[in-house]
Amino acid sequence: MDPVTLVVTALAAGAALGLKDTASAAVKDAYEALKGLAKRRLDGRPDGELALDRHEQAPDTWRNPLLAELAAAGAEGDGELVTAARALMQLADAAGSRAGKYTVDARGAQGVQVGDNNQQANVFHAPPGR
User: Fold this and answer.
1) CA distances in angstroms from 107 to 10, 20, 49, 112, listed in the order given
2) Domain of life, per the record (predicted)?
3) Where residue 70 falls among pLDDT bands split at 50, 70, 90?
4) Which residues contact 6 (CB under 8 A, 6 or more apart)?
5) Number of domains comprising the chain
6) Please, what's the largest Cα pairwise distance for the chain?
7) In sequence order, what DSSP letters do the residues of 103-115 get, joined into one string?
8) What is the chain's mean pLDDT, rounded?
9) Residue 58: pLDDT over 80
10) What is the DSSP letter of 76?
11) Is residue 44 part of a domain?
12) Structural domain of residue 24, as residue ranges?
C-alpha cells in the first residue's frame, strides 16, 4: 500500500474505532497521535485541514480529497507519519498487519488497486521502447 493511502486508511480505521466506547486506550492514543501528525503535515493548507476534519465524520466522502491533499503536502516522505499509520493499523487490524495487508510494493506495476472490494477494468499497451 502506498504511504499516503496507508495514512488515510489508518485515519479512517482510527476514527471508526476511536469513536466507540469499546476501543482500547492504545487505539485512541494511536489515532490521536496520527491525526496530530497529519494536521502538522497539512498546516497552512486550508483545503487539507478541511478534508482532514471532515474525513473523520464522513471517510468515504472525504477519502479522495484527503488523499490528494496529503500527497500534495509531501506526506509520502514523512517517515514519522507513515510509522504512526502502520502502528495504528497494527492495533486496528492485527491479523491484516501480520499478513502484510498494509505492506504492498507495487513499483513498476500497472493497473493496480489496493484495498478490499474494488472493481477495475484494464487495457494494457506495450510500454514505450519495446
Assistant:
1) 22, 37, 30, 10
2) Bacteria
3) very high
4) 82, 85, 86, 89, 102
5) 1
6) 57
7) ----TT-SS---S
8) 83
9) yes
10) G
11) yes
12) 3-98
